[in-house]
Amino acid sequence: MATDLTTSDATGRLARYVLGTKLKDMPTEVRVEARRAFLNILGCMLGGARHATVDAVDAAFGPFAGPPKATLIGRSGKTDPLHATLINCLASSVHS
């Protein structure tokens, strides 16, 4: 009998899998690619951090940010997590 998974069931299963997985249990290739992907996105964020578009969005939305708890990669200072997510993601993709 097939089980019909709802979104919450799938999300719960994924969360349990991620929380239960140890780095040492992953194949070497997976660990290497994870490091490569992390360095790639970090480099993209640094490369786009001072782009004019990122500056404009930061200037427009920055005044509405909450308490500074999160890092803006490649930029000075901190901001709230939601604003940091917006700016860091924009910076990572601005040259695409």
Overall description:
This protein has 96 residues and is mainly alpha-helical. It is 60% helix and 4% strand. It is built from four helices and two strands. A two-stranded antiparallel ribbon has the order 1-2. Strand 1 and strand 2 form a beta hairpin. The protein is extended, with a radius of gyration of 18 Å. It starts with 6 loop residues before the first helix and ends with a helix.
Tell me what portion of residues adopts beta-strand conformation: under 5%
Element order: H for helix, E for strand: HHHEEH
Q: Taking Cα atoms only, what radius of gyration do you get, to the nearest Å? A: 18 Å
How many strand elements? 2
Shape field: extended
Largest sheet: 2 strands, antiparallel
Lateral strand order in the biggest sheet: 1-2
Low-confidence region ranges:
none
Number of helices: 4
What is the helix fraction of residues, given as a range?
Answer: 55-70%
For the termini, the CA-CA separation is 45 Å
Mean pLDDT: 92
Structural class: mainly alpha
How would you summarize this macromolecular structure in one to three sentences?
This protein has helices spanning 7-20, 28-48, 52-61, 81-93; strands at residues 70-71, 78-79. With 96 residues, it is mostly helical. The longest helix is centred in the middle third of the chain and has 21 residues, at 28-48.
Describe the secondary-structure layout.
Blueprint: H1 7-20, H2 28-48, H3 52-61, E1 70-71, E2 78-79, H4 81-93
Antiparallel strand pairs: 1-2
Helix pairs in contact: 2-4, 3-4
